[in-house]
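haha ok so turns out i had the wrong file open the whole time. this is the CORRECT one, sorry everyone. sequence first:
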Amino acid sequence: MLTILNVSQNHFVRGGSDRYFFTMAEILQKNGHKVIPFTAAHPKNEPSEWDEYFPRAADFENPGPIDPLRFLYSRDAVKSIQRLLKNTEIDIAHFHIYYGKLTASILGHLKDADIPLIQTLHEYKITCPVYSHLSNDEICEDCEGKHFWRALPKRCNRRSLARTALSVVESYVSRYLGSVDKFDHFISVSHFLRKKMIQYGVPEDKISTVHNFTDVTNFTPNFDEGDYLLYFGRVHRSKGIFTLIEAAAPIKHVPLYIVGDGEAMSEVRQFIENNGCEHIQLLGFKQGDELKELIQKSICTVLPSEWYENCPMSVLESYAYGKPVIGADIGGIPELIADGEDGFLVPSAATEALREKLLWMGENKGGAVEMGRIGRTKMEREFNAEIHYQKIFNIYDKVL
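then structure:
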C-alpha cells in the first residue's frame, strides 16, 4: 500500500475541489493507503494530526507588505515540506489546487526526493493567469497558454491592473518553478479541459481524463415530483445567472429557487424587483442538510453556464439525489448530460432555448422524475467511487 501526500490549499470545504480533496482521501484510505494532507494553515481548517506541518499562507483578507511575495514564493511552505520529508516516507504526491497559498516553491524539493508528482487539474491555471479563461466576464484565450503578459492591458483580474500584474508575475514564476515540467502526470476532470491543455502545450501523453465522482452511498435519492426549479452555485454573470432569470421571468407558475451568493446578487435582486418576479426566490448560501433537502425536493437543477465549466459537482450531486439537470452546452458539461435522457442541453446564453426546457420541466414533472432515475443509475454505474479509485490508481501505477 502507498503513502500518498494529498496536497491542496484548504483543509476545509470552500468549493468543489475541496470536497473532492477530502472525498478522494477517504476513498484512498478505504483501499488501505496512508494519506497525509498538506495544506495551508487556516482557522477554518478541519482538525488533522498533520497540521503541525501546515505552513502559513499569504493573507489577502488583511494583507501586509510581504503577502504578495508569499503569494509568489512561500518560504514557510518550503520549510514545512522539508520537515515533513525528513520525518516521513512518501511514495507519491497528488496535488489539487495548491498555488497562491502553498505556491510552486515546494515542487523542486519533492522532485529532489524522487517523489512522483501528479496534479488533478480542476481549473485552467497553467494556461490562464486568472485560472478561468475569462476576461471581464467574456471567454478569453488571448494568452495562448504562455503569453501571460497579454492579460495586463485587459485587466483580467477583477478589472484591476495591480491584481492582474500580480497574477501575471505569479504565472511566470510558477511556470519557472516547474508547474508544468516537474509534474509526471496531470489528471483532467473533463475531456474538454484535457484538449485545452494539449492545445496550449501540455504533452498529450502527460495528461489523462478522469471525471469527478460522487460516492452515491452517501446520497438518498428522492423520486417524488418536485415543487420548483433549482439553481445552486455562485451568483455570477459567468455562471449564466442573468440568462437564467430572464428565461424564467415569464414562467410565473413555476417557482425558481436560487441558492448561493456572489458579486451579481444585487443586480439579480434588482431585476427580480423591477420585473415583478415573485416566483424567483433568492435563498442565499446553503450547505449541508439544508442544501440536500432543497435538491431533493426540486423538479430539476439548472446549470446555465457561460464559461468553460469542467466537471461540475452540482451535476453529479443532482443525479445522485435523483434529479435531472438542464445544462449549457459548454466546456465539460455535455460530457455529463445525455440530452433528452437524464436532462437537457441548451446552447450557452440562449434565453429562449433555456426557457423552453424550464417550461417543459415545470409542466412534465413525471417525465422529470424518470429522467432523474436515469441520472441516478448513471451515477451508480459510471461515476461511482470504486471505478474512480481504479482509474486514479492506474495513473499512480504508471508513474511509480
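The first strand starts at residue 3 and ends at 7.
again sry for the mixup
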